[in-house]
Design a protein that fits this description.
The protein is of the alpha/beta class. The chain has helices spanning 2-20, 42-59, 76-87, 122-138, 142-157, 170-191, and strands at 33-35, 62-68, 96-102, 107-113, 228-236. It has a five-stranded mixed sheet, with helices on both faces. Helix 3 (76-87) links the parallel strand 2 and strand 3.
Amino acid sequence: MQKAFHRRFLIVILLLLATASCFAALPRPVGYVNDFANVIGRDHRQQMEDVATSLKDEHGVELAVVTIRTAAPLTPKDYATQLFNEWGIGGPEDSGLLILLSVDDREIQVEVGYGLEGVLPDGKVGAILDQAVVPHLAKGEYGQGLLAGAKVFKGELAGEHYELGRREDDWLVAFIIFILIAVIVTYLYRRQEPKGPGGTVHRPRPVRVPRFPHGGGGGFGGFGGGRSGGGGAGRKF
């Protein structure tokens, strides 16, 4: 009887420990820029503080930039979500944005509040990271990369849309999609051709399939109370 009790008690303790391991010991904010990994230079830090202050004063958006050594035992995504909600970034309007750099995990995560998801959908956030941030991080330019991201996100939220270059393989994908559409349209068109007396086919004027234009270019938005909508994006570097 006593052994059974001890066994159950041990199981409960193990379950509690397993549950506790799912939650990281989160730091407390020290400002808009929280360089817990000590990888941001003074100049970049000040410029990011200025960007965040401007966002708050002009647009009511709270931006937090955070660096950590590792998100373990969590993934950087889970850590970012928990940190966003714990700090309440964005206030009651949920107009918050968190840029989290996990240095040893070599990963950056951007968490977007509910109130900003219409301006900064996941695809746009990922594209900004790919083209404006990750190239700097891959070279160890952490401060420069985070500052570049903060500036671009500020521009998006201010309506100054960042023009993203089209990747080289985008046109190949577009061409393949065009061919598939053309084949499907042709197949459906031929199946629906009307037949006259004697089985002869009366062919109306051919349907012109729109052609893709040639050329490049393309386009790709103290804390308290804010909640993450689960939106955003993350990238390894």
